[in-house]
Automatic annotation (TrEMBL), chain A:
Pfam families: Acyl-CoA_dh_1, Acyl-CoA_dh_M, Acyl-CoA_dh_N. Residues 125-219 form the Acyl-CoA oxidase/dehydrogenase middle domain. Residues 231-394 form the Acyl-CoA dehydrogenase/oxidase C-terminal domain. It comes from the Bacteria. Gene3D superfamilies: Acyl-CoA dehydrogenase/oxidase, N-terminal domain (1.10.540.10), Butyryl-CoA Dehydrogenase, subunit A, domain 2 (2.40.110.10), Butyryl-CoA Dehydrogenase, subunit A, domain 3 (1.20.140.10). This is Pimeloyl-CoA dehydrogenase large subunit. Keywords: FAD, Flavoprotein, Oxidoreductase. It comes from Roseiarcus fermentans.
Automatic annotation (TrEMBL), chain B:
The keyword Secreted does not apply. InterPro entries: Acyl-CoA_Oxase/DH_mid-dom (IPR006091), Acyl-CoA_Oxase/DH_mid-dom_sf (IPR046373), AcylCo_DH-like_C (IPR036250), AcylCo_DH/oxidase_C (IPR009075), AcylCoA_DH/ox_N (IPR013786), AcylCoA_DH/ox_N_sf (IPR037069), AcylCoA_DH/oxidase_NM_dom_sf (IPR009100). Belongs to the acyl-CoA dehydrogenase family. This is Pimeloyl-CoA dehydrogenase small subunit. Its cofactor is FAD. Gene3D superfamilies: Acyl-CoA dehydrogenase/oxidase, N-terminal domain (1.10.540.10), Butyryl-CoA Dehydrogenase, subunit A, domain 2 (2.40.110.10), Butyryl-CoA Dehydrogenase, subunit A, domain 3 (1.20.140.10). It comes from the Bacteria. The keyword Flavoprotein applies. GO terms for molecular function: acyl-CoA dehydrogenase activity; flavin adenine dinucleotide binding. The lineage of its organism: Bacteria, Pseudomonadati, Pseudomonadota, Alphaproteobacteria, Hyphomicrobiales. PANTHER family: ACYL-COA DEHYDROGENASE (PTHR43884), ACYL-COA DEHYDROGENASE FADE28 (PTHR43884:SF20). Residues 122-211 form the Acyl-CoA oxidase/dehydrogenase middle domain. Residues 7-118 form the Acyl-CoA dehydrogenase/oxidase N-terminal domain. Residues 228-375 form the Acyl-CoA dehydrogenase/oxidase C-terminal domain.
Length: 396, 381
């Protein structure tokens, strides 16, 4: 047992840190530090910078653009990129559909779709949830029927994150209404420009536009738009959701936010002095850091475990629960540091050069707190994760 | 001890509740929000007609002789509906400043106009550097004969962009953080030298950053002794916190009611989600949090009129702590148990959550009051 990073891993960490510092465009970094929304172009620009270095899909097989790094190095990479305020990889392509395609897809699908994910020339979104199928995803009703040389998709998805930017959507649809719920579902790859696809925005409580409703009105797609076998979509979805959960701890993002909190807390913004002088506040900051350190170690344990048996670990539910709770805790601390100037509202979608109503450093701290309530709801809600732990780990 | 409302108070509650039910559906509220001032002038008139705007003022000042209980009743109903009108700013906070600082003739004049619905006030007090410290006042008031001239900036003035008049705190003497030397001045919002930048707030209301450049205040508009305004400010803020406690309890009870309704109707896995024990227990904890908050709302309401500043401050801080904690738990869990739908702007629960968050942050969050309470010693002394 040795919990220290090796010389090689330390050197690697330094290399990644320097790369992010030297290559992340300042305009993107500033927005991320302030907690402001990134534009589509910001994601694309950063992904291209990473892709040029060969780092945009580190965990993928080398032949499709992966790096061949050990799981420890992958996690160091993620941590450094997140803590350095770089945009997150668009998980829908990189961590969700990409691995599904290279694991279960046809050669033609791999060739067609994987390169576009590597440099984000194809933006993917996730068409799983429906109004009636949230936690109970398997009760989904979007249907696909075969008609000549096409599949015809009809139904509705909802909460589809960043569908307004997407070129493609991966969709779970029912192909056998007679079978047991989980057994009649297939996994499709669908061009958002197909006739019959309509995207309708949903505004979230922070005022932003990041989720959408997506309607399929008899959308015709080619027969080869199905992944793997017909009626086996649920297995691919489970594989995908386990991958999604792994990325969701976001340790580096929480570290970055804690850095920001410490930075703001050190400035004497209020007459009574810097917030960090307040022992009460310091104690609460320290408590969150303890939680985060433990999570970081837990994540490392889950990762090294995976290395041995290759299967997803139900302990990844621990990562999801703690990671999401810590993200929320850091947004609360940030609001506290900002203090009374959390009150002004900035339209997150507005493209304006008008200075904010409050001081510059205040940023949209409250909006981020509101928005971050989503992390205990999506990716399998924390209640669902507790159910998984009870069943899969405890056998209850 | 008697927790019962008098029959007049019961009637007041029924009247406000009826008005809210009729006029404050969530869809109707969207129309009020869209107005330039961010609320409904018609409802303001309706509040005047119901006697709400004069409720907490003494009869000899032109009010209807009520007090903190009447304020509590109105605020709780406003909280359920997420009412947008500047009742807290004008009647509760502005009104309290007038009651505690102004001379009798000023009082009669201002309160009469408030009660009639002809005067909307905002308190311009916070500054960029002041945080939650009520004594931190940098905007200056220089004597010019018997008049004063104001210079400086105020921020986070809730409804400051639509108020008819501003009560401005200003430093007449001493250093920026001294307790002595703070005066209160009534300034017409359109007076020369006043410039206001209005903006929406995170909880769907409006506020303003306001600059004062060479603003002359006539002697008649100096509220009380110009060097000793802080006790009145502290007292007015204590009363405002008590009123906010009631608004929060209203918002919490609405969030709980909506959540319970959702648990009974939303189905997943072939059953209503309210059949999951994990959610039942969480909803039960929300009830516990709400009842604790309601109790402290009563405690704050009863203490709001306490003349002993120390006892009053203790009670108010204790209430703020409980309200803040309950509001956070209930707001967060209401969102969590609704799932994705609560994250949408279209749906009321998210707005209740946001308002509750801002109430926790107003006039010092739960932790700040906990610290103050810790400094003041036992609640049971
Ligand atoms: C901001 C945001 C972005 C999203 N992005 C996407 C996306 O890109 N693509 C996509 O497909 N989906 C997306 N989702 C959807 C997300 O996965 C669902 O919201 C989630 O699965 C929960 O479903 P629901 O909202 O219908 O809530 P419900 O399933 O109705 O749950 C309501 C409440 O009941 C609880 N509950 C449900 N079942 C149980 C149980 N058995 N035991 C105990 N408690 C239970 C839940 O935990 C929750 O608290 C997104 C959601 C949000 C909020």
């Amino acid at each position: 047992m040795d919990l220290r990073l090796t010389e090689d891993e330390l050197a690697f960490r330094g290399e990644v840190r320097a790369f992010v510092r030297d290559n992340l465009p300042a305009s993107i970094r500033e927005k991320s530090v302030a907690g402001r929304r990134l534009a589509k172009d910001d994601y694309v620009r950063w992904t291209r910078i990473l892709a040029a270095k060969g780092w945009s899909v580190p965990h993928w097989p080398v032949e499709w653009g992966g790096t061949g790094w050990s799981p420890v190095k992958q996690s160091i990479f993620l941590d450094e990129v997140q803590r350095g305020y770089a945009p997150e990889a668009i998980a829908f392509g990189v961590s969700m559909v990409g691995p599904v395609i290279y694991t279960f897809g046809s050669e033609a699908q791999k060739k067609r779709f994987l390169p576009g994910i590597v440099d984000l020339s194809d933006w993917w979104c996730q068409g799983f949830s429906e109004p009636g199928a949230g936690s109970d995803l398997a009760s989904l009703r979007t249907a696909a029927r075969r008609d000549g040389e096409s599949w015809v998709i009809s139904g509705q998805k909802t909460w589809t994150t960043m569908a307004q930017y997407a070129d493609f959507i991966f969709v779970l649809a029912r192909t056998n209404p007679q079978a047991k719920k989980q057994e009649g579902i297939s996994f499709f790859l669908l061009d958002m420009k197909s006739p019959g696809v309509t995207v309708r925005p949903i505004q979230t409580i922070d005022g932003g536009h990041e989720v959408n409703e997506v309607f399929f009105d008899d959308v015709r797609i080619p027969l080869d738009a199905i992944v793997g076998e017909e009626n086996k979509g649920w297995d691919y979805a489970k594989f995908l959701l386990a991958n999604e959960r792994n990325g969701i701890a976001r340790v580096g993002i929480s570290k970055g936010r804690l850095d920001r909190i410490r930075q703001l807390a050190a400035i004497p913004v209020y007459g009574s002095g810097p917030k960090i002088d307040d022992p009460f506040f310091r104690a609460r900051l320290a408590a969150v850091e303890v939680d985060l350190k433990a999570l970081e170690m837990t994540q490392m344990r889950v990762i090294s475990n995976q290395r041995r048996d290759g299967k997803p670990d139900p302990a990844s539910s621990v990562l999801k629960i703690k990671g999401s709770e810590i993200q929320q805790a850091t947004t609360e601390l940030l609001m506290e540091v900002v203090g009374p100037y959390v009150l002004p509202y900035e339209d997150p979608e507005a493209l304006t050069n008008e200075p904010p109503a409050g001081p510059d450093w205040a940023g949209p701290a409250a909006a981020n707190y509101f928005n971050t309530r989503k992390v205990t709801i999506y990716g399998g809600s924390n209640e669902i994760q507790r159910g998984i732990i009870a069943k899969a780990i405890l056998g209850l | 001890m008697d927790f019962d409302l008098s029959s007049e108070q019961q009637m007041l509650r029924d009247n406000v509740a009826r008005l809210m039910k009729k006029k404050y559906g969530f869809e109707q509220r969207k129309a009020y929000l869209a107005a330039a001032n961010g609320f409904s002038d018609d409802l303001w008139r309706a509040y005047a007609d119901l006697g709400l705007l004069g409720a907490p003022f003494a009869e000899e000042d032109g009010g209807f002789g009520g007090g903190p209980v009447e304020t509590m009743i109105a605020m709780e109903e406003f909280g359920k509906a997420l009412a947008l009108e500047p009742y807290l700013e004008t009647v509760v906070l502005g009104g309290a400043l007038v009651r505690h600082a102004a001379a009798p003739e000023q009082r009669a004049d201002l309160i009469g106009r408030i009660a009639a619905g002809d005067l909307r006030l905002s308190f311009a007090h916070a500054e960029r550097q002041s945080g939650f410290d009520l004594n931190d006042v940098g905007l200056t008031a220089k004597r010019d004969g018997a008049a004063f001239v104001l210079d400086g900036e105020k921020g986070l003035v809730v409804n400051g962009d639509s108020a008819d008049a501003l009560i401005v705190s200003a430093r007449v003497a001493g250093g920026r953080r001294d307790r002595d030397g703070i005066g209160l001045f009534l300034v017409d919002a359109e007076a020369p030298g006043v410039s206001r930048r209005g903006y929406p707030t995170q909880d769907g209301r409006r506020a303003a950053e306001i600059a004062f450049a060479n603003v002359r205040v006539a002697p008649d508009n100096v509220l009380g002794s110009p060097e000793d305004g802080l006790p009145a400010i502290e007292r007015a803020v204590d009363e405002t916190i008590a009123a906010l406690a009631a608004e929060a309890v209203g918002a919490m009870s609405e969030a709980l009611a909506m959540t319970v309704e959702y648990l009974k109707t939303r189905k997943q896995f072939g059953v209503t989600i309210g059949s999951f024990q994990a959610l039942q227990h969480r909803a039960s904890d929300m009830v516990v949090a709400l009842e604790q908050a309601r109790s402290m709302m009563y405690f704050a309401t009863m203490s709001a009129a306490d003349d002993d500043a120390d006892e009053r401050a203790k009670a108010i801080s204790a209430a703020k702590v409980q309200i803040g904690r309950s509001a956070k738990f209930i707001g967060q869990q209401a969102v969590q148990m609704h799932g994705g739908i609560a994250m949408t702007y279209e749906y009321k629960v998210g707005h209740l959550f946001k308002r509750l968050t801002m109430i926790d942050g107003a006039f010092g969050d739960a932790d700040l009051h906990l610290r103050r309470l810790g400094d003041r010693g036992s609640l049971f002394a």
